[in-house]
């Protein structure tokens, strides 16, 4: 391990919305929360995810990553008031964080497992980007805050869902605000397994323990190989999508101010 690599104890308590714990085999559990309860999407949590993914990915002591939510919810609430998005200067902060969030998640060079423990209405593309995606039978997927609210789904949702569901089903999902139940998501290939409520994290940790028995190079290079195409797709589409989302959002807010 490089002497410059982050040490777990240097960042484990840094984030207000991400609880981190790691076992002796290098399995890192990331539990998204807000104030100890269900994870709320806010300017703060949006910023924290990108920086946390960067530190997690740079720490070679992390050998497998498990992501989950809190209290039977992945994320279904957004704090719109926490964001300042009325002009290009304000959007620059969100534009930067939005790119770093997904780029740094994909830059993690060890397997990532999502244990989706309930509804994922806000940015469900994040857990779906994992290598292993398992879900509770209570989970559901919806791109709630974007097109239904007059906002362009350009911050990675357009890349992930048209890739996972296919071009036509992905566009239908985004533009119609479609809800995918856990069973629908399994049938569509979005998730690999469904578990009874309360068992999804234990199953994810069991898979992580199996993976952690592999060599470091098997873990790291498998992840690098299996994220190559996603990285290319994000490179092609993420900045454009965020830019178009910003333009349309500024226009929407300007119209609201006039009315």
- The helix-and-strand class reads alpha/beta
Question: Could you tell me how far the N terminus lies from the C terminus, measured between alpha carbons in angstroms?
Answer: 58 Å
Q: What's the SSE pattern?
A: HEEEHEEHEHEEHHEHEHHH
Beta strands, count: 10
Strand content: 5-15%
- Widest β-sheet, arrangement of strands: 1-2-4-6-7-10
Q: Characterize the largest beta sheet: strand count, sense, and whether it forms a barrel.
A: 6 strands, mixed
- The residue ranges in which pLDDT falls below 50 over 5 or more consecutive positions are none
Number of helices: 10
Radius of gyration, taken over Cα atoms and rounded to an integer in Å:
18 Å
Word description of this protein:
This protein is an alpha/beta fold and 259 residues long. It has helices at residues 8-11, 43-58, 88-107, 125-128, 157-164, 167-176, 182-188, 200-212, 216-226, 228-258, and strands at 18-22, 27-32, 40-41, 64-68, 77-78, 112-116, 132-136, 140-141, 180-181, 193-195. The model has no long low-confidence stretch (mean pLDDT 95).
